[in-house]
Amino acid sequence: MQIIEGGVTAAKGFKAAGMAAGIKYKNGKKDMAMVVSDKPCVTAGTFTLNRVFAAPVKWDKNIVYNEAYAQAIVVNSGVANACTGVEGDEACALEAKTAGEALGISADAVLLGSTGVIGMQLPMDRMCAGIKALPELLDYTKEAGTLAAEAIMTTDTVSKQVACTVNIAGKEVTVGGMCKGAGMIHPHMATMLCFITTDAVIEKKALQKMTSDIVEDSFNMISVDGDTSTNDTVLVLANGEAGNDTIKEGSSDYDTFYEALSYVLTELSKKIAGDGEGCTCLFEVQVKGASTKEQARILAKSIVTSNLTKAAIFGHDANWGRILCAMGYSGVDFEPEKVDIFFESNAGKLQIVKDGTATDYSEEKATEILSQNPVTAIADIKQGNSEATAWGCDLTFDYIKINADYRS
């Protein structure tokens, strides 16, 4: 696998654009993006399990699960089109119809994404004007992909893109993607949107299975604030332009492509966690020695979502009791008196707990380690060979400021 620069335009046959359509922002900020494939794409997706889900989530589920192909994605930021009733559903239909006419494809081949304030109706005059203008801006360049990535941001401080290539039976296959998210991040399939493009030839069933499996270990293992968004969406489009033999489940090619898709989804997940609203560092939690993968996942997520632990990371305070406490209320069974806990960063690694009690560690060294970015906490529960990793961030004063003023 080779890591390359780029995002949604890295794979062959994909073009993108981003622009300011005036959806919500009045300062010329980019707020609408479009991604289009030259050919129809097999698709896969995972979506929020929040019972309150946005209109575009409903629209995309229908296409991903019931249509053979899709060819374009239209995304807006500023307004989430969530809790908008029938009018929100009608807005999706009009978006897709307008995009289909502008691109010369079926409305059923247009996927949608929205992010922003819940409860507001989309300004459809500006939405449709933006959709009609975007095709003229579409390009295959890395710069065009970056404009699209910037256009889907809300409280993000940086755009988020990842791409890589792998060799499958002599053919170079590329996977690239973009995502957005900094707050309302606790995916359960944050506001979290992720769009992946690839030129691989792959069966739709195989693409959906690997996407669902990888999301469990990537986006479903991040948290910024414990709030599962109404709009969480991961979409993967594969147009087959690489010309490789069709990837099917159970083959070695499946495993090779799985590695590439997993890399892109995991790195994008970490970019969201590391850009959490107001944060100063990415906080990684590794749980080792678990009896099952699920036990490790639950323990890691419990630690990474603990507000007290997140505050301690912000204060560079090795308050390990908060970690053990978060493990204790996770709901899974383990033996506290066997737990070892370590802190690690580029400043070194330090064991602070052995068999459930504190070691004679240096507070000064612990503070040095916790003052870096990223910071990793490792908990070994010594029950088996399973492990899992979760990602989050520290909890700072600025998180409150950002969310107190979000609608203004």
From TrEMBL:
Its EC number is 2.3.1.35, 2.3.1.1. Pathway: Amino-acid biosynthesis; L-arginine biosynthesis; L-ornithine and N-acetyl-L-glutamate from L-glutamate and N(2)-acetyl-L-ornithine (cyclic): step 1/1; Amino-acid biosynthesis; L-arginine biosynthesis; N(2)-acetyl-L-ornithine from L-glutamate: step 1/4. Keywords: Acyltransferase, Amino-acid biosynthesis, Arginine biosynthesis, Autocatalytic cleavage, Cytoplasm, Multifunctional enzyme, Transferase. It catalyses: L-glutamate + acetyl-CoA = N-acetyl-L-glutamate + CoA + H(+); N(2)-acetyl-L-ornithine + L-glutamate = N-acetyl-L-glutamate + L-ornithine. The record marks 190-191 as: Cleavage. GO terms for molecular function: L-glutamate N-acetyltransferase activity, acting on acetyl-L-ornithine as donor. Signal peptide: none annotated. The record marks 115-116 as: Involved in the stabilization of negative charge on the oxyanion by the formation of the oxyanion hole. Heterotetramer of two alpha and two beta chains. This is Arginine biosynthesis bifunctional protein ArgJ. It comes from [Lactobacillus] rogosae. The gene is argJ.
